[in-house]
Amino acid sequence: MSSLRRRSRNHQDGYLAAAIGGAIGAVALMILGQHLGIAYVKMFMPNAELEGVIPPSIGAFIGWWLGSALGCWLCLLGGRYQQAKRTAILLLVLTPLGIICWMFAYVSFLNWVSGTMTDLEVVQLQLRLRLLSIGLMVVAIPLLARFLT
């Protein structure tokens, strides 16, 4: 009977499941949150200028935060890994800190290189760097949470 049941894996495993689940959940809910924020701005703030950036940014932040933890938890739970709940709770704590560190590093780097580049080059670098750095952080934070549990 016990050989028919799938045994739960050791708590040291699950890094790939945590990274994939965290990335899929974060990207999916980040996009959803950003689109909901844009819809809110179009519906309730039709004459907004710079303040129209705030709702999509909040939606993306919350989507990244909750999506990463939810996706990681579901992926670890589906693979029957131990300590899936602890990893997800730790990820809920680490994700806002990681987002704040990412924003600080991203803005600092862009300010550092903007003095030596033209405006067009800075915008092109910003578009590429934002996608790459978010992708790196979306994978790195769940890996760190899994390592710490």
Characterization of this structure:
It is built from 4 helices and no strands. It is an all-alpha fold and 149 residues long. The longest helix is centred in the middle third of the chain and has 31 residues, at 84-114.
**Rg over C-alpha atoms, rounded to the nearest angstrom:** 19 Å
Shape: globular
Proportion of residues in helical segments:
over 70%
- Element order, helices and strands? HHHH
The separation of the N and C termini measures 30 Å
Structural class: mainly alpha
What is the total number of structural domains? 1
Mean pLDDT: 90
| Biggest pleated sheet | none
Say how many strands there are: 0
Share in β-strands:
under 5%
Uncertain residue ranges: 1-5
Helical run tally: 4
Can you describe this structure in just a few lines?
By secondary structure, the chain is mostly helical. The protein has 4 helices and no strands.
Sum up the structure in keywords.
globular, 4 helices, 149 residues, 0% strand, mainly alpha
List the helices and strands and how they pair.
Elements: H1 15-44, H2 54-78, H3 84-114, H4 119-148
Helix pairs in contact: 1-2, 1-4, 2-3, 3-4
